[in-house]
Every structure is written in C-alpha cells, then in structure tokens.
Prior knowledge:
- This protein is of the alpha/beta class and 642 residues long.
- It is built from 23 helices and 27 strands.
- It is 37% helix and 20% strand.
- Helix 3 (90-101) packs parallel to helix 10, helix 5 (154-162) packs across helix 6 and helix 19 runs antiparallel to helix 23.
- The N and C termini lie far apart (73 Å).
Amino acid sequence: MADDPSGTAPQGEQELRRELKEARETLHAIRTGAFDALVIDTGAGDELFTLARAGRPHELVEVVARGDLGYFRAVAIDFDGTLAEGAVAPDTLAALAEVRARGIRVVLVTGRITAELRDVFPEVLDHVDALVAENGAVLITSVGVRRLAAPVDRAVGVALRARGVAHRQGQVLIACAAGDEAIALEVIRSLGLECRLVRNRGELMIMPAAVTKGSGLLEALADLGLSQHNTLGIGDAENDHSLLEVCEIGVAVANAIESLRAQADLTLSLPDGQGVADLLRGPLLAGRTHLHPSRWQITLGADDDGQPVTLPASQLNIAVCGDTGSGKSYLTGLMCEQLVDLGYAIVVCDPEGDHVGLGELRRVLVTGGDDRRLADPAEVVRLLRNATVVIDLSHLDSEAQRHYLEGLPAEIEAQRAVSGLPQWVVVDEAHAPFGRAGASLALFNPAAKGYLLITWRPDQLASEVPAALDAVIALGSPEPSDPLVDLTAAVADMPRAQIAQLLTGPTGRAVLAWRARPHQAVAFTPSPRRTPHLRHQHKYARAGVEPPRRFYFRGSGDHLTGAVAANLSELEDALNRCDAGVLRHHCPNRDFSRWVAGIFHDKRLAAELAAAESQLRRDSPGAIVEQVRLALVAALQGRMST
C-alpha cells in the first residue's frame, strides 16, 4: 500500500498506519531489551505482561507508570453543573485528555438519559473511559452497554401521564420536573412500589430503590480493574452525595449546593468546568499534596484519657517497631483488619506466619505455608485485583525466602503503577528486604505511599527509609532500645528523653509519632483484635534455630545424652522420650522455661513450663516425674495449637 503524501488518506486508513507503526516500534523495543514489561488493554482492564528480561526493576516501574501518577488512578465527574454548564469548554476537554495521557481513567457519572447527554455532548465517549448514565442505572464502557437495574415499572409512566405530568423514559429511570415531586410520590405509593425519588436541582428522577451514582461508579471501576480508594469524585448537586461518599476523596465545585459543600472533603474555588480543569492539573492528583478524609481512618487504640488514637487509612508510609515479643505483629494485624473492612487491598509479606489469621476475614486469601501452595509473584498480582493476599513464607528457609522476595517487588510495584492496587504493601521483618543491601530497596518509591514496614531492628533499615516515613508506631518495653527511641524521636520531632520516657514501661503499650502532628507523640493502649494473633506460629513449632541456640539435653552427672531440640516440636518429642534422669537434671534449674523465654521470647509459655518444673526436685519419686512430664508436654501442645 503506497503512502499518501497529501495526507488525504481516509481516517480509518491513517489510524491503521499509526497502529502498525506503534506495533513495529514496540516489537523493536522488545527485541532490543528496552522494556521489562508491557501493559496491554485487553478490553477488560489493563493486563501486565512481565518479560523475561528484568534486570532493571526501576526502569520497569517507570515504563509502566508512564510518569509520576501520584495515588489516584481514576476521576469520577458529574456532568451538569460540574464538568460543564451546557457545552464542555475546550480547556476542560484538554484537561481530561492530559490526565488520560498520564494513565488516569476518567469516568463520567451523570443523571442524564444517554440520548439526552449525546444531544449536548455527542463526542462524550471519545473523552472518557466509562460512562455511568441515568444516575447509576446504565453503564457504558468499551465492552458495551449494561443496565445495572431493572427498569422502573411502566405503570408509573402510565399513571404520571394520566395525571398530566410530562416525563421522559430512560432505559431504567423516569425523569420529570422537580415540581412534580408530590404527584410522583403519590403515584408510587398508590402502586405499592419501592422506588427512590432523587432531585438534581430542577430535575426529578424516579429510580429503582438500590441504584445511586455511587453504586453505578463502583460497577464502572470494577470493570476497569480499579478501586474506589484510588478514585477522586467531583460533583455539584443533590444526586452527587453518593458519588462523593464512595470515593477516596469527594470534591465539590464552587457552584455546588450547600449540603454537598458541607459533605465534601474539598471545595474548589472555581465553578464547574474551570474548577475541574484546575483540579485535574493541580498537585492533589499529581501526588504532590495529600488529603486524608476523616471517614477513611483506622483506630489504633485509646490514649490515657480514653480518646481514640487514629491514623489515615491511606497515603502514608508507616513503620511498626519494637523489641521481639513486644506486640508488633498484633498491632499490624489490628491495622490490617480495619483496612480490609474499609475495602483497601493489601499484600502482606509474612516470613514467620504471624498474619495467617487474617485469612478468616472476607476478601483475604492466604498463600504459602505448610498447608497451602505458594503462589508465584505474578499470580499474587492477579489475586490482588480482587482480594487482600497474605504470603506465608514460614515454610521456606532464609535463602528460599530471599529468592522469592527478589521477584515479588517488581511485580507488585508495576501493578500499583497501573491500577493503584494494592494500596498497602505490608512487609514483616522489613530490615532484611529494606536494609542497606535489601532486594526491595531499588524499587522503594516513597512518593507512592502505602508501605507498612515491621521491624525489630530499625537501625538496619537503609538511610532513605526512615526519611520517607510519615509515622512510626513504637512498642513500649521496660528497656526500649536506643535505635527505637532515636527513630521515634526523629519522626515526632521531640527530645529524645521525652520519647524514652513515653516508651519505657510494661509491654502492651505503644507510642504513635506522626510527622503531620510534630511534638505530639502519644502513648496508647492498642484496641482488641477480631482475628487470631498467631505470633511466629510456624517458627515455634517447626523452624529450627541455629545450633548454638538449640537445647542440648543432659542427664545425671551433667552428661550430654545426644538429644537436641531446635524448635518446640522437637522439644515436645524429646520430653516424651527422655528418661527420668534428664527431667530431674533440667527441671530444678528451670532450663526448659529459660530456653523458651530466651530463644522464643514467649513469656506465657515460659511461665507455664516454669510452673511445671517447680514441682520437680532431683530426689522426686517417679510418679512426680511423670506428672511433670505430662504437664510440660501439655503446655507445649497447647501453645502450638493456638
């Protein structure tokens, strides 16, 4: 096919040439190794394909992200009074094109009947990624048109016509003038129907009871593979309340009605399309500023006055730090429970099996561990589109864990760049992957927010990590470590001595330091949890400690018997098999309880073992020896089953 130098080739032919040229350039880039991944529009949302060569993970994220996207991946905009008053201004259309070019999806959410919208905005589908029409009842995407509810009973239209009320019939709703509200209500009551009447300034819509702009938007986002928590909603009128409510941030234009301005998280200084264009080009959508609505909060606990201690549920980087056994995994699980309840997606990297109890919640999947197949990193990303995923690595040795975690961050960060999912990346034992030579450090993008890092060695974190933290939750103890005090004081911007005083005390207390509230670190008692807290479940039962820290059994005369325990399961087995002389040697010295307390930091189990040991002396009769043996074994079995 010859080129057309005059540029007068048919539009379809020019489009085909452009697509062929892009395809050739892409194939060349793949062959020469310029890309590590492709994002392909499959018609049901972008699909990420990671290529075999992935030697530059930082370039992977840059390619997929196509620039600095910030936190939001979608904007949901009302039409009348918000995007435009009548025709859409050219500058507003330009702003829409700019955000779409950055990878942000645009969803138009309108009360209008589709045909009436096209009368004033005929090219609407050229400027948006999805259209929610009829106040949430009709969805139009690249896949086609879908009714989200059954049409309002035709008897309503017949009765309105009989009463002389002019109305229009959409695919689902019936529209009439707001002045006819009383008659419409009488008609619905007389017919015994369950319908909603929704006002939009001078218009009235008769809707199926469960349909709102908010419900329609959620359907559109699901089709696009996006989340309400990465969506910013903009409206102006009565029927926009639900739209703003479901979005992470709800925005009212300057000309919005008073009630919507009162509900909105942000009210613009400019009206309709001018305000929309200014917002789309502003720092909020670009991620240079952050807004934390009060309705998206998690409660950590209560302070000494009984007041709730809270944090925003998104757009933060948080570290949970404290000594071993101080309650880090408990508090992390408490936060994750609430985030799941609010609808956020989380991936939890769980080296010790501490967080598998979260699997009892809806929309939480656990992969890995002794009883489940471990999903590979690409499969984890696919699962994250519909659920929170806990990756239990406790069945792997340290080298296998390291290898697995080397491939995971690139997949997760690439998916976050495309869809914003997951909103949270939770990493336990974070001082390893986020240490000075950690495998995840090259992909650590503090501006993306949503990192929750748990560690008992904050001093081993790479230098750029503490600087990127927005908040630190430090667990108290009788003798808090110097690195813990230093990090908490730095984030709180408070004197070190004050922080040390707040952190010193019995276990079970914590201190929140938040950069947004300098000089105001607060001590609190964590709230109760809903799901089981399984601290180091697999490590206690099966994972062996290194040889110098193992328990070596001795008999009478302090001679080694050859029996060795590297974990609690082996300790239980050895106690079942050892002779009475071994128990008479170890129990009076409290050797079993001291080993459990020193190695596993389990004070409760150590106390139960010590109580049993205290019943045995070196000259105790055989019956007492067997009673103590049974008590020791029962304590171990009880702990490993909880």
